[in-house]
Amino acid sequence: MITVKEALQLPQLSSITVRSGHKGLYRRVRWSHAFEYDDVQHFLEGGELLLTSGQSWPKEKELEDKLLEGYLRYQISGILFATGRYLTECPPAALEFGEKYAIPVLEAPYHVPFVKITHAIHIEIMNRKIRKRELAAQLPIKLAKELGETTSRIKVCELLSEHLKCPVVITDSENKVLEQAVPNETSINLSKVLSPLIPIFQKGLSDCLLDDRPIETQVQVISEQTKTFVVPLQIEGDIWGALWILPSGKDLTEEQVPILEFAAALLIDQVLHNKETELKNRQLRLELLEFLIENPQEAPAIMEEKVQELGFLRGTNWLAGLILFDENKHGPQEREEMDKLLDECEQWIEDTAEVDGLCEIYENQFVLILSFSGDQIRIEGELKRLQNNINKSCPKSTPVLILGETKPRVSSLAESYREAKALVPIVLYKSQTEGPYFAGRFRRELLIYGGLSLDKAEQLRNLILPKELLTERGFIFYETLKCLASLEYNRESAAKAMHIHRNTLRYRIERIEELIGDSLSSTSCQFWIKVALDLESLSNQAVVNDRK
Fold first, then answer.
1. Which of 27, 43, 327, 417 could form a disulfide with 77 if both were Cys (CB 3.0 to 4.6 A apart)?
2. What is the CA radius of gyration of the chain?
């Protein structure tokens, strides 16, 4: 097969533009198919690149959504729209669909014949199949069968090492050893042997790039003296890694060369298959979040099924949360920064032994779902470590973790998510450096304020505090009141914190008490001031919404 990106590199497809779904360009195209009817999904098997002029593209949203859901179910490799007659541009719903599920949405001018596109793709697919069969035909029947049936890199290494009677290694694009196999009777220091060979291999790749020559994916001799060979593993023009045949003391025979090239082709197929599996998992993650966020009433019945499909470790505790950003921003401004944050969270989940789960973007929200076993205090400590990591990764966006309460069952995740969501406006205007924020520590605030709308919160605060304190002229008194409340009304500490004289503070307190109509020493007055300050983030959010 051929990936979407490789298909776009064919000369006949040079006029095609990728409009969305760039992350899915490594989806493999099993076949391409032109259609002009709205029930094409009934004739799909999966992996098709669909081509349409848009003549029968649904005009009603409900029918459009149903059509796209069918494409998702069959995991098509992409959709190509010919624009200029029936469509002036790719349908917005299709663009959103492609970006969300990493399914490339392509655009071609209407005058480009579909037959030209499909013919070029099909010829390339058939040529690759023929080449692979030709290689397999040159292998011993037993070895070809065993290699063809394996789905793991290490098994490929072991089969090659056993057949060639020498060490075999697979490295990644950074020349890190991923897999290795050494015959039982062989003693070798692989790191020592590889170290001087890697620079030679890298120089050969660099020379090709400098001279604008294609990188050969055939067997290359790295060291004539030690009889060391390498096959670059190239995917879509980029070097993914390499298959190394380390010192065997003899040249490869004509019969052995196709074995290595066949094995290299299988390894590339495995990489692409793993990438497609990742995309399928991401689809399941998005479906899980969709039920969690859009259909919380149905979520309990669906959670168990989706979690099982995703293969999460069944921890004894579950929680959901959000990653919130500075109130002046909607989140990271650059896609690169968003991806960096996702990578940081995924790496934390992978590195933390007691934790499994996901971090995903859904409707511009960064949502966390975590399953964990063990001590709650330890998990909170690990989440603080995650907070520190994401602060370092995205210092401009000042992200902060907001987490619902821990639940004993996966079916209660929707409840944990609702708690995190309710906590958002309460902590929105607090210090981002104090995170993460746990709903369990804000039970009182959630009970009192969790059900308040933003407008109601603003009304209640305005009933407690006189409007003079909330004007520009009253700003200095309002800040003084907040400082006093934070220091439990200790006047000496407040004067030092604000760098003012005690007499200045005394004057301000007298003025505040005048406006409030009560003494700041009164426990009742202090209680209501605490309520008003707790409501600040909610009422301020109402003001922000009004401005928008």
1. 27
2. 31
For residue 96, pLDDT over 60 is answered with: yes
State how far the Cα of 504 lies from the Cα of 207, in Å rounded to an integer. 74
What pLDDT score was predicted for residue 283? 86
Pick the more confident residue, 306 or 546.
Answer: 306
Percentages (nearest 5) of helix, strand, coil residues in the chain:
55, 15, 30
CA atoms within 13 A on the CB side of 251: 4
Are the beta carbons of 213 and 246 closer than 8 angstroms? no
- Does 232 sit behind a cis peptide bond, omega within 30 degrees of 0 on the bond before it? no
Q: Which domains does the chain have, with CATH numbers?
A: 2-125 (3.40.1390.20), 138-273 (3.30.450.40), 296-449 (3.30.70), 454-547 (1.10.10.2840)
Q: Which of helix, strand or coil describes residue 84?
A: coil
Residues sharing a CB contact under 8 Å with residue 301, sequence separation 6 or more, in sequence order = 411
- Whether the CB-CB separation of 76 and 47 falls below 8 Å is answered with yes
What does the angle CA 308 – CA 339 – CA 351 come to, to the nearest 5 degrees?
55
Range of weakest confidence among 17-31, 254-268, 414-428 = 414-428
CA nearest 296: which of 453, 417, 408, 440? 417
> In the prediction, which pLDDT does 147 show?
92
- DSSP class of 213: P
What string of DSSP letters covers 239-289? EEEEEEE---SSPPPTTTHHHHHHHHHHHHHHHHHHHHHHHHHHHHHHHHH
Q: Which residue type, as a one-letter code, is found at position 411?
A: S
Could you tell me how far CA 233 lies from the centroid of its own chain? 25
Q: State pTM to two decimals.
A: 0.71
Q: Which of 391, 360, 357 is nearest to 373 (CA)?
A: 357
For residue 141, with 0-12 CB atoms within 10 Å meaning exposed, 13-18 middle and 19 or more buried, which class applies?
Answer: exposed
Q: How many CB atoms lie within 10 A of CB 32?
A: 22
Closest by CA to 246, choosing from 262, 230, 258, is 230
Strands 168-172 and 177-181: antiparallel
232-to-108, 265, 272, 363 alpha-carbon distances in Å: 33, 10, 16, 40
